Amino acid sequence: MFEKNGVTFFPRGGDYKDHPAFVALRSVSLGDVRFPWGFFLVNEGGKAYVLPATEQDHRRVLLQAFPDLPEEALGQSCGLHAEDHLHCGGSCRAGPEYDCVPHNHGSYYGCGCVIGI
């Protein structure tokens, strides 16, 4: 796992279940829901719930981490699946050097096509 400009990325194959972002996810039941642009984990009145993110939210977080990320990578939703942990499905059509990886920034959880991970 690594952090870039405040956004934490979780490359495939790692065990991140003890990371605070994943511990926080245990407070809600996400079932087999798909979030094309990610979601926010919101705590209100002692209860946690999920608020779907917009494409704008997705773009804002990725551009914070990678200000020069090209449009062909920014405009892709590579399929966030909410299971017991974050899982990114699908592939990045931006090119073979890109990988679809989960990331977290505060209460935001998403998947994005990034290079060099």
Question: What this model shows, in words?
Answer:
- The structure is a single chain.
- By secondary structure, the chain is an alpha+beta fold.
- It has one domain.
- It contains three helices and nine strands, in the order E-E-H-E-E-E-H-H-E-E-E-E.
- It has helices at about 20-25, 55-65, 70-75, and strands spanning about 1-5, 5-10, 35, 40-45, 45-50, 80, 85-90, 100-105, 110-115.
- The strands form two sheets. Strands 1-2-8-9-4-5 form a six-stranded antiparallel sheet. The protein has a three-stranded antiparallel sheet with strand order 3-6-7, with no helix packed on it.
- The chain is globular, with a radius of gyration of 13 Å.
- The model has no long low-confidence stretch (mean pLDDT about 85).
Low-confidence stretches: none
Mean pLDDT comes to 84
> What does the oligomeric state look like here?
single chain
| Strand tally | 9
Let me know the largest β-sheet: 6 strands, antiparallel
Termini distance? 9 Å
The percent range for strand residues is: 35-45%
